[in-house]
Recover the amino acids of this structure.
């Protein structure tokens, strides 16, 4: 039996792997790693493979979990497992406050284990390559990362038309791989030339889509940060080329195009629901922004029963928004409708799936149905 994680988005430290009934592992935290002992760090994402385990009863113990970033993410959580990296199911998982214990007996010789079904950079490249071949789509990367990777952007429609401008961003936090599955579903429907709803949106708006804004962090197996250790969703007030070029370049491209609607796609560790957080707390939040948000939420609820508005984050009080975060920063900078979409790592508590939990398939549908609320508000974005 061998345990490894030296691949795209891999993350685990092997402490002991001699006994299949007591495999000891630890999550490697994001940089910086020189924090004082006992301080929680950005450690939550894990992704590794185990070879030589056909019909072997495995007990995997992830230790030191009290030092992970979001302890509320572990109760009720079940790890994602796969023997082919195509079909991902959930394994029996228990948390005692210190150790996350995963028990599984694979029916194949290789088992992959992950916090959520991974979406690696090869698949991102395949998605971008496919999309760039579709009618009316131009590949226009916004810039490069600290590791020299492109931050891809797809421009759908003629940017010189005087129509509303929609920006959609995914994977600011690289460990939130459900955002990439959402993006795949969104792009496949948006670019379907036989879909009347997508044709309506493309006729009425120009879209700028950033499928993966943090490829460095994703490749390195980080939870929330880029190559420099920056949490990109806390860099929007004052991004720099030295620390957060991904945000610096994206914000510059937004300044060039303007923004009428921005949707930033994420995943939430603790809450077992799909929901949207708005920008209610920004200074000068307008009735127009509030009306657009209400219409968007109502249309999403009608389009997809996995989306709901009962559970979510508390609204920021007036003037209490964190302007270093994308949603608030963009709403304030462009006086537009700006939102954060959150999907669960666990399951949808309203519609649980005992086998798959919250899954890539449900993320794909959530992305595809996002066109409904966009069409519902597009004519009002500049009213």
């Amino acid at each position: 039996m061998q345990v490894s994680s030296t691949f795209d988005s891999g993350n685990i430290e092997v402490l002991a792997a001699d006994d299949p009934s007591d495999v000891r592992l630890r999550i490697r935290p994001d940089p910086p790693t020189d924090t004082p002992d006992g301080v929680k760090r950005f450690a939550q994402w894990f992704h590794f493979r185990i070879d030589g385990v056909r019909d072997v009863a495995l007990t995997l113990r992830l230790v030191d979990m009290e030092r992970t970033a979001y302890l509320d993410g572990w109760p009720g959580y079940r790890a994602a497992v796969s023997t082919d990296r195509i079909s991902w199911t959930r394994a029996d998982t228990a948390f005692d406050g210190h150790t996350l214990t995963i028990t599984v007996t694979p029916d194949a010789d290789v088992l992959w284990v992950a916090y959520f079904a991974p979406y690696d950079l090869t698949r991102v490249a395949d998605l971008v390559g496919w999309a760039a071949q579709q009618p009316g789509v131009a590949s226009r990367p916004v810039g490069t990362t600290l590791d020299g990777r492109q931050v891809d952007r797809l421009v759908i429609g003629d940017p010189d038309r005087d129509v509303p401008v929609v920006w959609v961003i995914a994977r600011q936090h690289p460990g939130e791989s459900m955002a990439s599955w959402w993006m795949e579903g969104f792009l496949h429907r948006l670019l379907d030339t036989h879909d009347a709803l997508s044709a309506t949106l493309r006729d009425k708006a120009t879209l700028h889509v950033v499928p993966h804004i943090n490829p460095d962090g994703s490749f390195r197996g980080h939870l929330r940060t880029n190559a420099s250790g920056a949490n990109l969703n806390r860099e929007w007030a004052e991004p720099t080329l030295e620390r957060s070029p991904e945000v610096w370049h994206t914000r510059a491209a937004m300044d060039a195009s303007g923004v009428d609607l921005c949707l930033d796609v994420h995943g939430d560790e603790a809450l077992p629901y799909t929901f949207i957080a708005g920008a209610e707390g920004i200074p000068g939040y307008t009735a127009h922004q509030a009306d657009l948000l209400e219409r968007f939420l109502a249309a999403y609820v009608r389009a997809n029963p996995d989306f709901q508005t009962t559970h979510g984050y508390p609204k920021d009080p007036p003037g209490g928004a964190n302007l270093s975060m994308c949603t608030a920063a963009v709403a304030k900078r462009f006086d537009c409708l700006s939102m954060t979409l959150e999907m669960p790592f666990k399951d949808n508590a309203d519609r649980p799936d005992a086998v798959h939990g919250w899954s890539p398939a449900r993320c794909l549908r959530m992305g595809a149905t996002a066109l409904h609320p966009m069409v519902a508000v597009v004519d009002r974005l500049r009213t």
Summary: The domain at 2-114 is CATH 2.60.40.3120 (Immunoglobulin-like). The chain has nine helices and 19 strands. The chain has a mean pLDDT of 97.
